[in-house]
Amino acid sequence: GAVVSQHPSWVICKSGTSVKIECRSLDFQATTMFWYRQFPKQSLMLMATSNEGSKATYEQGVEKDKFLINHASLTLSTLTVTSAHPEDSSFYICSARGAGGPYEQYFGPGTRLTVT
Amino acid sequence: AQSVTQPDIHITVSEGASLELRCNYSYGATPYLFWYVQSPGQGLQLLLKYFSGDTLVQGIKGFEAEFKRSQSSFNLRKPSVHWSDAAEYFCAVYTGGFKTIFGAGTRLFVKA
Lengths: 116, 112
What we know:
The complex is a heterodimer of chains A (116) and B (112). Chain A has strands spanning 4-7, 10-13, 19-25, 32-38, 44-51, 57-58, 67-73, 76-81, 90-97, 106-107, 111-115. The model of chain A has no long low-confidence stretch (mean pLDDT 91). The N and C termini of chain A lie far apart (37 Å). Chain A is globular. By secondary structure, chain A is mostly beta strands. With 112 residues, chain B is an all-beta fold. In chain B, 0% of the residues lie in helices and 55% in strands. Chain B is built from no helices and 12 strands. In chain B, a hairpin with a 4-residue loop joins strand 8 (64-68) and strand 9 (73-78). The model of chain B has no long low-confidence stretch (mean pLDDT 93). The chains are: A mainly beta (116), B mainly beta (112). The interface between A and B is medium-sized, with 24 and 22 residues.
């Protein structure tokens, strides 16, 4: 149980275009979803937290107009990188928390974004 | 400030040898602690967690970790490492407000 999927697993886009990444909880309802960014050989950096039906809460330094997060249902959250630039290239990981408790998160497999 | 420190950026062990990955945390209240493993290009998989009770916790894949409050540590151990254990390991602490802080990670290399 507690499986989280992400789509796509990798994507290449041109500078200036937008790309959407989906995160789905497959076998549980995710009341809260998290989006992380991971640079090579570094730890995870929390970008934002979203609760179903509410606006996402962004961490300090994360541009909310650039990284649009939508958590429209209890099983789906999307991250849209708008007007992508090469510096946005990174590994993006989502995680989800169910109703069982605030402590545990279940992670998706990640999405590798390369902006050319 | 709340933090998680993994002192070792990378560790190399021989296959079959024992392993200990260090983790120290800074948190004012009773910590909820986790160890995750990440294979290249993959997301994080939970190895084990500590919430309360027995300070020695067992996880998947033969891993265990011991919570030592006096040392603010939560070290991960495995008695005999397999080549498939080569990966990145992250220690994490739940800090409240639905947030979790991750350490910088320790890369484990396993040599034949």
